[in-house]
Each structure stands twice: as structure tokens, then as C-alpha cells.
User: Fold Ubiquitin carboxyl-terminal hydrolase 47 from Myripristis murdjan.
Amino acid sequence: MRPVYYIQNAAEEPRVLCIIQDTTNAKTVNERLTLNLPASTALSKLYEDVAHKAGYVIGTFDLAWGNTSDMAPLDHSSEMSLSESGFEPGKRNFLQLTDKDGEQPQIASDESGTADSSGLDDSSQERFIGPLPRDGTAGCSSDYSSPSYSYSSILNKSETGYVGLVNQAMTCYLNSLLQTLFMTPEFRNALYNWEFEESEEDPVTSIPYQLQRLFVLLQTSKKRAIETTDVTRSFGWDSSEAWQQHDVQELCRVMFDALEQKWKQTEQADLINQLYQGKLKDYVRCLECGYESWRIDTYLDIPLVIRPFGASQAFGSVEEALQAFIQPETLDGPNQYFCERCKKKCDARKGLRFLHFPYLLTLQLKRFDFDYTTMHRIKLNDRMTFPEELDMSPFIDVEDEKSPQTESCTDSGAENEGSCHSDQMSNDFSTDDCVDEGICLDSTGSTERVLKPKSLLTFELFSVMVHSGSAAGGHYYACIKSFSDGQWYSFNDQHVSKCAGPGMCGLIMSALYVVVSAEYLAVDDFPEHIKSLVQKEKESEEQEKRQREIERNTCKIKLFCMHPVKMLMMMESKLEVHKDKTLREATEMAYKLMELDGVVPLDCCRLVKYDEFHEYLERSYEGEEDTPMGLLLGGVKSSYMFDLLLETRRPEQVFQPYKPGEVMVKVHVVDLKSETIAPPISVRAYLNQTITEFKQLIAQATELSAETMRVVLERCYNDLRLLYVPNKTLKAEGFFRSNKVFVESSDSTDHQVTFTDSLLWKLLDRHGNTIRLLVLLPEQSPGTLTNRTVCQKMGGDSDVSFEGSKGNRKSVEAILEESTEKLKNLSLQQQQQGSSTSDSQKSSDASDFEHIESPTQEADSNSSICAAADNRELENRIRAAAGGSGGASSDAENQFACEERSDSEVNNDRSTSSVDSDILSSSHSSDTLCNADSGPIQLANGLDSHSITSSRRSKAHEGKKETWDTAEEDSGTDSEYDDNGKSKAEAQYLYFKAEPCAHDESSGDAQKCLVVHVDKRITLAAFKQNLEPFVGVTSTQFKVFRVYANNQEFESVRLNETLSSFSDDNKITIRLGRALKKGEYRVKVYQLLVNEPEPCKFLVDTVFAKGMTVRQSKEELLPQLKEQCKLDLSIDRFRLRKKTWKNPGTVFLDYHVYEEDINISSNWEVFLEVLNEPEKMKSMSQLAVLTRRWRPATMKLEPFQEVVLESSSVEELKEKVFEISGIPLENLEFAKGRGTFPCDISVLEIHQDLDWNPKVSTLNVWPLYICDDGAVVFYRDSTEEPMDLSEDERNELMKKESSRLLKTGHRVSYSPRKEKALKIYLDGGPAKDPGQD
Assistant:
């Protein structure tokens, strides 16, 4: 039975499902390996199993976690089990198989599959650059040789011997060109022979030097792919250039020009011409006398047309396109040629003849074209055959080639029309654009090619550029033939692999032919300066490898510490420690990182396992001070499911051991007599403990009686559960890793009533609904500020309780704990009118408490002093403000961020609030309750309860009629008083406490900021009334603005809404100014200046009321304009009109009534227009039109002039224009302006682009549609001819217009180029032209 016993144990062992993605090759990146291993399997065994299944040699690859961005590998030799290394049984564990030290994995041989049979040694790879010998047939298909994933047919870097180039973003075109140049022996060898002089040039900006470095790395590096950022930096490009797509042929031209400039006066000065330059004759021959005029041009590439213009059939082969390239055209008819010999125009023949072909012949296929039907760029995917051997003898002019060339040659090059592309071009993708077809290589057998005699003009194909995609964008890669073994390779960015030939690659854009191949320069034959460069790059790569190895063995984990000095707040950092460092060494590193030297002794610090999210101390590491951190943390990982906390203690204290499986409970002791909630005490318990045992544990920690103890668990916001079942476990009650409870133990009768009706519940209810706001007060005159401060101090320095009309006021005590926990200051709501409570008792620990008074505490005797600074109404309000509060402090450990919402949303906020204890240390504070009648607390809608144990609101109002605050539908704001004239604030009886804080101590404005602790169920009206003593004016004389995260401010105007949409530390700005009453709207007035560069100028903020006429609003505006804007106007010399953004609209007539004739809303905007003459607009049937004259003879626009029409007749418009301009009606032409006011348009476009003189009789029909005031109409004299501009004058005017229109924010539609040009900057960067866009 023994074997059965072990089999049963093995079956019961949990298993780990590993899913491995092979990222070492593009062909295998979408494949997955699946292993289901026992959880006790060692990491080293995992590597063996993966190597066997993938067909790789052990030790030539890494495994890393696949669900994180960090690629730190797992330890090859670790004997730790999978469960100890972070693998989770029963779940999918994603891993990635990656390169080791930048090299791809070695494929195991079929016979042994061990490391002994792997590849060539490093020394042989360094000496031999090129494809390594390999048996069998290679191709681009057949990804896997067997179902066991041996990958034997995949050609990786170690087999090809070539290094790829990393694509920065859209630099595939650059990578293809660089690989082609690297594989060209003549270019590479010549580049190696050039020596860089560091004393003459900065290596960073030297293009030849950076190319030299890149080629050395491509030839000697062991990496799979290398970066091209140093090369592009030498071009003067920034990171934005990497996101620009360009044509590879355009880049070749620009790069060759830059190299020629850099190589001046060197041996390589004529290298480009020697390799790539050919000659052709551009001739014209008279058909009558035979006279021929010609010139010699040079070319670097031959652009071949695929489909002739207007033709539907494309050329079928390169030979056909070459024949068409040299095919002459006949000049006849109107295109006749003037013959110098005949002295007349004659028919002639014009064409090109090749005189000389370069060593490297480049053929460029013009696949990018323009479709004049759709007016979009297109890509031609027509089939075209390429021969592997191209005989150019039929295309050369033999007579001209043999004749001496004494003519001077001009390098005109070949116009590369339509060859560049960009992702910024047309997005018109045809269905054929992405079809990779049209390639057919001549299938001439190798035997036939050998037998065929090869002429001196026979070129061999060795490189093609392939493009996939459309004219709007795509991807480039290169297929290049190696001269070492004659094998074709595909260079596709970082991936290099064998391919069957260019015919299998895709759509060829250009081809490179060579006459005879040269030999690559061997490493041993390198010049001395290249050898030193190789050594330098090798050392740099080794250093990078060592640094990467250190990074791979470094544990990076979040570190927290409650700093005992720095504001008693939790500090966060990142601890980076080598996996072999011990816990003791890591503690010393964390000690220095948190800057505790001189604050706490090192032996008073320790590292513990910590959960930041739950604020939970998971375990401590007693006796493991010499254990390596890699073992304690479970290995090197990209991220950890836990954090570390650097815990500190006082010298006389002893660290408490934290055992795994314990839960943390933060216990807040509630004192019903003083109505305070003490800071938390941390207690650790077990989930299987009963409530009785838990009470005994708390009693030991708090020295309270367990018999009379009540324990309340706060599971989440507004969810309180009284723990009253003695034998119920903590787990059954809903305890988790980190918990928060409130305990109370007293002899009072409060525990005899129902929990939701008890004083304890009411105190906790207030605790859960109080938030902290930062209120910025407005600028005050010295007298007002002084009086207000005096008032506050008088209240703050008195201990005498004041007995008002509603009840007794109580003194306030604030707890100042040096603990690291956060506190709240709250006050309990009074429940009955006229009830009196005793003064709050001071704590026995005098160091923990400070006495804080209310600034309005002696309101009966001192309120008149405060009111003298303001007015009698404020005095009466302060006298009526009765109510008391006791200081209370509590903790909010499980605070959650409140989601930002608008002020008008329903009040169902579920967020918790917190108040820092360090803010509550000021002696000038206010702790008052809003006045209330004897009725219940009225709550806003949406504050329902979801738990029987925590239905705070429903139980408090059971059997009582609730009232709901609703926003006024017909007004932009709410009245501060109800219909009976009673203050709405009196209907609320909620907690409010305010005290000054040092908002900006450096500016000396410490008293201009308040910290307000307030019940978020309070209405805005009550909140404003409580702020009156601090602002210094009544609530109707200041405005409340809410400040959002982006520092935008929005005024809160709905007085009957609560503050439930606010959360802790929200900012509020108070500004002086009359608050709105019911039916009033705040209006911004802007001046309309039609002939100014900025036609919209802000004037004043004012208030319009419902039912007010426009004339009445103008009368109220007059003194404001005179006082604030220095505008002394008469009421008949300005008008108000509609404002839509910057567009002037309907003119408001004096008898119009707001809300009846004119729709008005909150934060409304209106134009004020100053008139030069009395108002002509008297009726709604009239139409005010803005006219502007265009003078073609001077290329200028005259200022705007307004005409008032009695009807919508075109004839009347012309007559009005005739009156102001004098242009005869028969010569008058007009056009409606386009866009928004002022309808700016370039003077170079206005004469042709506008729809002049439309054939309509009325203005309210198409194409005019002038139905409202403010339309812009241009007019001109048809007999006036436009100015004749020279090219220089036109360019100068274009610049001026561009500058003018850009300043006004209008689009310049005549910009000649919309895509970014490809440039290489020889001085290291582009020169910024401030005049350019």
C-alpha cells in the first residue's frame, strides 16, 4: 500500500499552470507553450522542461514574468519551488521566454539536445561576419519542424550572423537604407577607411562617424538589434522626426548630399559619384536639317514610370520601363522647336540617351502617383518583372559612349515626382493599395545564366526595397543578397532572416544592381582607427551587460516610513537592494534613504512586510536579519504584491512581533461625555476569535471595561455594524486584513436604547459626514480685517459660556496628538430646543488637548463690535446665530477619494472624509452649529441607507416628515430666503467649525485662508451664513467659487443644494460682490470694437434681473462703466446686442424684456457697442449689416461700416452701400463673408474665392442666408482692376497676410506645403525661423 500512499499525496499536491510566450523570434511570438507542473517543482527544473519542450539549449535563454513591463528574469539555478517564487497554484501564470544577454537562444541538436552540441564558439563568430553554414533547405515558410516546437527551421541572429536595427517609431525606411549601405562592400570599406578627427568636429553631430560606429556594431555586436538614435541625432533630428514617415529614395538623396558636404577635401569626397553616378544626354534633334542640341546630365538613380500618364495599362517589366524612359517624343504643332540652323520653328525629336552607367545602378519605381479624378495620392500595385541579371547594353548610346566627352556636365539629377509619402497625406485607402503583388522575377535557371555570355553592361540584382501599405503610409524593409554566400536575407527592422529571394518579399519600390561584387573588409584587415573603435564599443557593450546583470539581480520594492519629524506623515520611496544583501544591510539602506540619521537610532528601526492599500502590517522578520533579501522577497520580480515599511520605535519601547494570519484593527475610543473620538490604537487579532475574546483584547489595550463595552465596526463609509453577538467570530462579522472599530465603555444609559437612536450612533454619524475645506478669503480693507480679527480673539480668549435664545454654547477642545494617525474634529448635533448640556470636560492627559474657543462665543456682548465693521444686518444675523458645539477629534484611516462632481448633482456621495490633526492647533477657531427650529434635521435627496445596522438617516427620521431641497427651475440661482422671508439656513442644524491657517506664510497672508470642518449635508446658504464673521460682510455681499483640479473656478449659486459633492481638501474661493437673488443672473459685458484687431474687450460684471427692460439694464450699467471703465456715455449712444463667442448678433431694443423677449441664463455674456450717432434700430423688422469695401487696385480692405435695412431686399442693401461708397449701382458687386466674425480672408484670395454678386433678390435665401443682425458683407467696384504684383511683391504680401491671419486665429489656406520636409542638418539641428509657422 506504500506506493499508493505516495501516489495519493502526489495527486493531492497543487499544480501550477505555466503559459510561456516565446518572444525571441517574430515567427514564434504568437505561439504558446503550456506546462502543468507540481507546485514543489524547482525553478531550475522549470528551465529544463521549457528547454526540452521548446528545443533550446539550457542556459541560452531567460524566463521572465509576462504580465508586467519589467523583464527581470527568474533565477536559472534557484532551487526554490514554484510556489515560493511567486507562482500561484490553480491560476494561469504567464511567462515570457526572452533572449539571454541580448543573444537569441541556441537550438538544441536533434541527437542530444544538450549544451554540448550548441553552435559555434564566440571567437569564430567574431572572426566571421555573415551567414553561418547550415544544412538543409531554408525558406520563409514552415515555421516549425515538429509538434514539439524545436524551431529548427527558424533562422535567428546566431545563425544568420547579422544584426537588426530597432525601429524608433516610423523609421523603417531609414533602417532599410542603412542595411543596404552596410551590405554594399564598396561603401562600407570606403567608410571604414575614413578617419574621424575629434579635434575638428563634435562626434555627436558627425554623420560619417556615427555611420561608422553603426556599421562597426552591425558587424561585431552580439546583440540581436541595435539602436539608430545616435545616427538620427547626428542628422539634427529630435524625437518628433521618428514619427514622420518619408520615402526611402528621398532619404537616400538627402543623406548622400549630407555625406558629400561632410567629406569635402577628403579621400572620400567623390565616393558617392564614383559608386552611384551615371551620365545621360538630354537632346533635341531637328527633323528637317538633323541639327541636334544637347547637354550632359548626371544621375544617381533612374526613375521609372510604372503606368504612363493617361494610360490604363502598366509596363510589364523593367526593360519596358527603361525603353519608355529613353523613348523620344516628337515636338510638333504648337510645341515646335526653334532650330538654330534653320532659323525657324521645326518639328523635332526630344529625348534622353544613356552615356555611362554607374558601378551601382539604382532603379526607382514611381509607384506613388496622383489620381486627378479623386484628387488624392494613390499607390500603383501593378505587376512588374525584375530580372536577376539586367543587360543595359540595348539602352546605351554606343556612338556617344565611344566619342570623347569634352562637354561640361551639369548635375540636374532626376526629378523624383510623387515618390515621397507621409502619414499626414490623404487618407483615401483604395481596396488595392495594400495588396502586395506585382512582383515577378525572371525564372531563368542557374544553368542558363552560366552558359549565357555576360557582357560588360550586365548588372546583377543584389538589393531591393519593399513597401507594404498605401500612399498614406506603410512599412519598408529590405531584401539583400549577401556576396559571401549568395544567399538572400530579409532585413525587417530588428528581425533578420533568410528568404527565398526578392520575388517572395513584396511590392518592390527600388532595386540596386551591381556590375561586379567586391569583398567585405575582414576584421583583421580593419584600419587601426577602426580597430580602436571596435575595442571601445566592445568595452561599452560589456559595461552595459554588467550593468544589466546588476539590474536583473536587484530587487525594487516600495518602501514606506512614518517619519517622526517631517510632519508626522507617511513617506514613500523605492528601495533598490541586491538580492544577496541581507535584511540587516537592507535596513541600513532604508535608514539612509528615509533620512533618519540623527533622528532615530539605527537599532530602533526594522523592516516589516506591509500592505499599503489596506494599511496592514503583514509580518515581521524576527531572527532573519542575516537572510538574503532575494529569499525574503521571493526572488527578483518586476513588481511585488506587498511593500516594506521601515518601522521606528522609541529607545524604551520594544517592537511587537507580527505573525502571518493576523488582522490589524484600529481601535478608536469614543468618550460620550466629552463627545470626542480618540486617535486609533493598533490591535492585532485573529479571524477565528469571538467577539467576547476580541473585547477582552481591546480591554487590555485600552484599559476599558469589557463588560460594558460596545464595539462598532465601520466596514465602509456610512456602514456601521454593532457587534453584539458574543460567540460570533470576527470573520463572520466581516473583518478583513485591516479594520476600523469604535469602542465605548461607560455606565451611561445610552447603551440601553436602540443603537440607531443612541448618542453613540449620532456622534459617529457626525464623524462620517464631516469634510475639511480650504477657504481662501478675499482682500479686505485694513479696518474690516482688524475688526474681524479682534472679534475672533475676543471669542477665542473667553471661557465664559453664553446662553442664547436656542440653547447653551459650549467650549471646544481640540486634540493635538503627536501620533502619526490622522484626526477629525467634529461636534454633536443638538436634538431638542432649549436643552442644556454641561461644559466639555478636559482630558486627564493635558499634553494631548488644547482649549479652543469659538469666535462668536460671546456674541451677546461683543457682536456689536464685529458688526460695526460691516452693517446692522450682519449684527442681527450673528446675534441670532445660537447653538453650541463640543470639540471632537476622530480618525479616518480608511479614507477614499471622493469623485469630482458638479455642484448641481444629487447628494449621494459615499466618500469618507478626514481631517489632519496638525491643522487643528490654532487657537482662533469657530465651532458653531447652524440655527434650527425644534424640527428634525432636513436632509437632501439621495441620502438613503443600505444597511439595517447603519441606516443613520432613515432611523433618525422614522415617523417624521422629510422635506427635500429642490433647485428653482425658472431661475439661474435660488433665493436665500423662502416665501415667508425666513432664512433657509435656519432649516439646517449641522456641524460647522472654522479656523485660520497659514495658506502662504511667505507672502504674509496667513489669515486669508480658513480650514473649515463642516457637515457636507449643510446647504450652501447655511454655509455662507457661517462664513459671515470671517469674510466681514453679510452672505448676500460675497460669492462662493469652487476651485477644481486644473485651477478653474466655477461659482456655486444654488443656495438650497448641499455640499455633498465636495470632498476633503477641496478649495473654495470667496470673492466680494453682491450675491444673486431669485430671478437674477450674473452677466459679463464685453465691448464690441469691429475695427480693432481684437474686437472683443471685457468691461464689467453686472447683474440683470428677470422682468427688467434693456433700457433699465443700460441705466444700471452707466455708473459702473463710468467708475470701472472710465466710459462716460449717454444712454442713447450705446446699445446691447447678443454675443455668441466673438460674433455680434441681434441688437436688443430698449423695450425688450429679459426672460420674455430675450432668453437669459447663468453667466450670460452680452456685447456693448458704442454708437457714433443716435440709435437707428427701432424695430425688430430692421436688419443691421456690417459692410466692408474691398479695393483690388490697392489690395486693401477698408474699415467696417454698418448699414440698417428696413427689409431683406438686395436692392435696398445696394442702395445703402451706394450712399456710403458712391459706387454706381451697375458697378456694385457684393459677397457674404465666410466663417465667424470678422470673416477674415487673405487679400490674395478675396477677389476670386468669394461668391461675388449672387443672383438673388432677397437676403434671406441661399447662398446668403442673412436673417439676423451682425452679418458681414464685402463689396467692390467691378470696374476696378486688381493690382499687378511682381513675384517678390506677392511673396512679401503673402508673408504679411500669413502673419495677420495667424494673429487673428484664422486659417491660412494658401500654405504651399502641408507635410514636414525631410531634412538632414549639417550644423546639428534646425534653425528656428520665428517668422515661419
